[in-house]
Amino acid sequence: MADRYLSFTATAPGRFLTARLGLPQPSALSRWTAGHPSLDGHLLHLTAGGPSGLDLAPVLARSGLPTATEAAGATAGSATGSAHGPATGSPGPAAVVLDATGVRDVDALAEVHAALHPVVRSVAASGRIVVLGAPLDTRDHHQAAAQQALEGFVRSLGKEIGRGRTVNLVRLTDASAAESTMRFLLSPKSAYVSGQVIGVGTAERHGGPVDWTLPLAGRTALVTGAARGIGAAVAETLARDGAHVVVLDVPQAAEDARRVAARLGGSALTLDITAADAGERIAAELPDGLDVLIHNAGITRDRRLVNMPAERWSSVLDVNLASVLRTTDALLAKGALRTGGRIVATASIAGLAGNAGQTNYGASKAGVAGMVRALAPHALAEHGVTVNAVAPGFIETKMTAAVPLFLREAGRRMNSLAQGGLPVDVAETTAWLAHPASGSVNGQVVRVCGQSLLGA
Ligand code: NAI
Question: Is 421 or 68 the better-scoring residue by pLDDT?
């Protein structure tokens, strides 16, 4: 269902009226299209806390945005006193990358303020602020305090910045290992990802040359629950990136699954993912193995716990969690996921923040996050496969269109971007995690929620 409020606030009278009434002011987000793959404008590269030792410049140079060195004079060295916006009259940056990995104490946090305070107003609508942080040093509580402070800073700035602009924090030690992440965050593909803290490790052992145009060419991706909704969008985005996509869904959805598969030049697999032998059947269907496994199928059976029969509890736990564990275990045990493979599971902000009427669903989705965090290091060490999760917030689908008007409006507006996300926003985030160059992103749970005000 169309978001009429968003259309209304895009008009001059709508903007005027809603501003006067103190109502939310969503800005239409700029999203990726083939003809418009990059943000419009330049990238400003700032540093706080002294030189970090990261070799960032080549990675930023390949982000698709011209880097402004003259604007800040701050591509190296302390930002204090040197960070300033472009000359008056010229458009502000489309993106700001603040390297704060060198921030080791509270005094150095002043440089974060000094770097961003003068430029934040000028960042373009739908622009990006990406703060780079270092991993927390548990042997140095001053460093840990200052680096953890960056999280509160980023999440607070995300909530106040407005105009469709996003703010995220990436913790890293190796700039080249973070290239796919930086490209994603600095592009329109990350339109609905804000307020996130993403950890990036060191470069993957198996990494080879990367085709940034068709990164999944020659690879096979299986998406569960892909006959419609978010799963269909994920299938479409992975196919855009070159994958042969297997569209898996239940027998009742076989016709839709075949239609999606035919449109994408992929194949359909009719299978209830809760079947005890689902993993074996997938492996039998794909004797050459697969590269990307997307656990997207999910159901809700909402009731407050006092009214919830055991069957409603167990059906949700079975589809959303037990089958994810079962098929993952079976496919890994069979060696069906090729080295360099990617597993992306679907959690939900309901699993991170909790939601009335969703004890079953919240439990299942929190379980997905637990699985991802525990399995990721082993799957990488033993199979060369990464394991991550996306946690969608309010996404405009048939499911959310059926939510009663008041709750729907609350869900849409109660996030920093004051609007619902689209299935493609979850799909783009999934495609980044499935990317061959994302081998250093492992064990992450990334919310695609426009920084929902629901906690956690
Ligand atoms: P949807 O209901 O539109 O699509 C789910 C698909 O999964 C359907 O095609 C369905 O037939 C399939 N499916 C269900 N049970 C299955 C089974 N046992 N075996 C194989 N396929 C099965 O749902 P939507 O909205 O596209 O959600 C996709 C995922 O995203 C789910 O995991 C959901 O929990 C999650 N999510 C969705 C949010 C939203 O706002 N729509 C928010 C947070 C999470």
Answer: 421
Cβ-based neighbour number of residue 338 at 10 Å: 18
Mutation to probe ligand 1, out of 193, 270, 299 (largest number of atoms < 8 A from CB): 299
**Which of the two residues, 207 and 320, has the higher pLDDT score?**
320
- Identify whether residues 129 and 192 lie together within a single domain: yes
* pLDDT for the residue numbered 161: 96
Locate tokens 């923040």: which residue?
A: 353
Give the range of the structural domain holding residue 309, as residue numbers without chain letter. 220-448
Higher pLDDT, 129 or 205: 129
What CATH number does the domain containing 152 carry?
A: 3.40.50.720
Catalytic-role residue among 32, 153, 192, 361:
361
pLDDT at 83 over 70: no
At residue 294, the 3 state secondary structure works out as strand
Q: Are residues 192 and 70 in the same domain?
A: yes
| Residue 76 falls inside a structural domain | yes
Pocket lining: 403 vs ligand 1, CB cutoff 6 Å: no
Query: Are residue 61 and residue 138 in the same domain, yes or no?
Result: yes
Ligand 1 atom with least separation from CA of 347: 44
Is the predicted pLDDT of residue 73 greater than 60, yes or no?
A: no
Strand order in the sheet with 197-199: 67-68, 43-47, 95-99, 128-133, 166-171, 197-199
**pTM listed for this prediction:** 0.94
Please give the Cα distance from 149 to 152 (Å, whole number). Answer: 5
pLDDT category of residue 206 using cuts at 50, 70 and 90:
low
Axis crossing angle, helix 423-434 with helix 229-240, rounded to the nearest 10? 50
Average pLDDT over residues 431-448: 98
CA-based nearest residue to 162, from 116, 188, 123: 123
182 closest CA partner among 33, 38, 389: 38
Shared domain check, 228 and 185: no
Q: Are residues 366 and 247 in the same domain?
A: yes
For residues 147 and 262, membership in a common domain is answered with no
Contacts of 116 (CB under 8 A, 6+ apart): 46, 83, 96, 98, 129, 157
Distance CA 401, CA 294 (A): 24
β-partners of residue 296 are: none
Q: Tell me how far the alpha carbon of residue 179 lies from the centroid of ligand 1, in angstroms.
A: 30
Residue 361 bears catalytic tag: yes
Residue 209 lies in a domain: no
Taking 80 as the threshold, does the pLDDT of residue 276 lie above it?
yes
CB 144 within 8 A of CB 137: yes
Shared domain for 281 and 372, answered yes or no, is: yes
Is 296 near ligand 1, meaning CB less than 6 Å away?
yes
